[in-house]
C-alpha cells in the first residue's frame, strides 16, 4: 500500500463539509496509507527534507472528523508521493516550502502538484495566458499605467497575484473617488506588489464557472457561482451561491488542450474559472469545488483518487 504525505493547512481549522483536501484524503485512504504533515515542521537538513508526520484517518460523517496517530519526525523521501495542498498566499514562506519540495522532486520523488510548476506559474496570469478569448488585462505595479487602464475600460477588477478566495480583490469605476486607495488594498498596501487589472465582466449575468481538471481529464460538470447582490465576488468563501451544470461543449476542446499542458507540467489537479467566454484564473495551489461536485456524484472523489493512484503506479515503473 502506497504512503501518501499531505502538506496542507492545519486540519483542525478545516470544515469537512466544504474542504476539498479533506474530501481527497477521505477517498485516497481507501487505496493508500495517508500521513498528515504537521504545519511549520518541514525542514531541509543535511540534504534531507524532513517533517513531523502522523498517520491520519478521516470520517466526514462525525464531528471529530479526523484521527491522528503519534507524530514522528521522518524523512520525506520515504513517502511514495507528497500531496502539496497548501492554501495561498504564495508568499516567501510558501515559496520556501516549494523550494524544499523541489529538491525532492529533482531527486525523482513525485509531488502533486509540482512545486517547480507552482513556483513558475501564477494562477491569475495562467488564466490570462490560456483564455480562449482575450480579456483586456494589465499586470503591473505602476500607478500611472493602472490609472490609464481604468480610464480606458471604466469598470475594472483589481486582483492581487498571490491570494485566493476573493481576498483583497477590488472593483473600481473610473469615477470612483477612492480608486487609489482600492488599488493600494489590492496591492496589500505595498506599492511594489504587482497586481492584475481586468475589464469588469457582469458576473451577476454570466456567473463564474469552476471546472475541475484531474490527471489531464476535464470533469463534465461544473459549479456555476453567483455573488450576493451586494458583492461582485462569486467565491463561495465570500457567500457566493452556486448550481451545477454541464461544462459547455463549446469549451471542451480548449479545456482539453489546457489540461494536457497542465499535466505535462506536473499539475494533476486544477480548478479553472471562466466568466462568459473568458478564462480568468487557473487554480493550481489548492483548488476547491470538489465537495460540491461530489455531493452530486458521490463517485467523483473516488474516481479522482483512483487516477492519483494511477499516477503513482506510472511513476514507479
Helix percent band? 25-40%
Total strands: 17
Largest sheet: 8 strands, mixed
Based on CA atoms alone, the radius of gyration comes out at 20 Å
Low-confidence stretches: none
Average pLDDT confidence is 94
Give helix and strand order, one letter per element, not per position.
Answer: EHEEEEEEHEHHEHEEHEHEEEHEEHH
Shape: globular
Distance between the termini: 15 Å
Question: What class do helices, strands and sheet pairing give?
Answer: alpha+beta
Strand content: 25-35%
Number of helices: 10
Task: Tell me what the structure shows.
The structure is a single chain. The protein has 317 residues and is α+β, with helices and mostly antiparallel strands. It has 10 helices and 17 strands. It has helices at residues 20-28, 92-106, 115-120, 123-130, 143-153, 179-186, 203-206, 249-264, 290-296, 300-316, and strands at 2-8, 32-37, 43-45, 48-58, 66-68, 72-75, 81-85, 110-112, 137-140, 155-160, 170-173, 195-199, 208-214, 217-226, 241-246, 269-275, 278-283. Strands 1, 2, 3, 4, 5, 6, 7 and 8 form an 8-stranded mixed β-sheet that branches. A 5-stranded antiparallel β-sheet has the order 15-14-13-16-17. The chain is globular, with a radius of gyration of 20 Å.
Amino acid at each position: 500500500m502506497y504512503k501518501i504525505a499531505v502538506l496542507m493547512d492545519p486540519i483542525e481549522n478545516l470544515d469537512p463539509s466544504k474542504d476539498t483536501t479533506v474530501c481527497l484524503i477521505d477517498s485516497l485512504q481507501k487505496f493508500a496509507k495517508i500521513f498528515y504533515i504537521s504545519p511549520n515542521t518541514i525542514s531541509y537538513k543535511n540534504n534531507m527534507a524532513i517533517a513531523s508526520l502522523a498517520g491520519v484517518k478521516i470520517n466526514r460523517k462525525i464531528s471529530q472528523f479526523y484521527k491522528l496517530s503519534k507524530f514522528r519526525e521522518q524523512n520525506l523521501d520515504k513517502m511514495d508521493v507528497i500531496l502539496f495542498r497548501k492554501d495561498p498566499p504564495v508568499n516567501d514562506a510558501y515559496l520556501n516550502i516549494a523550494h524544499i519540495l523541489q529538491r525532492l522532486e529533482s531527486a525523482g520523488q513525485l509531488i502533486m502538484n509540482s512545486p517547480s510548476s507552482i513556483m513558475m506559474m501564477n494562477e491569475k496570469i495562467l488564466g490570462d495566458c490560456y483564455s480562449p478569448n482575450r480579456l483586456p488585462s494589465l499586470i503591473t505595479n505602476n500607478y500611472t499605467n493602472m490609472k490609464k487602464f481604468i480610464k480606458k475600460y471604466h469598470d475594472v477588477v483589481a486582483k492581487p497575484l498571490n491570494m485566493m478566495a476573493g481576498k483583497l480583490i477590488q472593483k473600481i469605476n473610473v469615477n470612483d473617488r477612492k480608486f487609489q486607495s482600492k488599488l493600494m488594498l489590492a496591492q496589500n498596501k505595498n506599492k511594489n506588489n504587482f497586481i492584475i487589472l481586468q475589464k469588469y465582466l457582469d458576473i451577476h449575468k454570466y456567473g463564474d464557472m469552476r471546472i475541475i481538471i484531474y490527471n489531464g481529464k476535464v470533469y463534465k460538470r461544473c459549479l456555476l457561482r453567483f455573488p450576493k447582490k451586494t458583492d461582485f465576488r462569486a467565491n463561495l468563501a465570500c457567500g457566493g451561491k452556486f448550481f451545477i451544470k454541464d461544462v459547455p461543449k463549446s469549451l471542451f476542446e480548449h479545456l482539453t488542450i489546457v489540461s494536457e499542458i497542465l499535466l505535462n507540467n506536473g499539475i494533476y489537479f486544477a480548478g479553472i474559472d471562466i466568466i462568459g467566454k473568458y478564462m480568468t484564473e487557473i487554480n493550481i495551489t489548492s483548488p476547491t469545488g470538489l465537495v460540491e461536485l461530489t455531493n452530486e456524484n458521490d463517485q467523483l472523489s473516488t474516481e479522482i483518487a483512483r487516477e492519483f493512484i494511477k499516477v503513482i503506479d506510472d511513476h514507479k515503473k
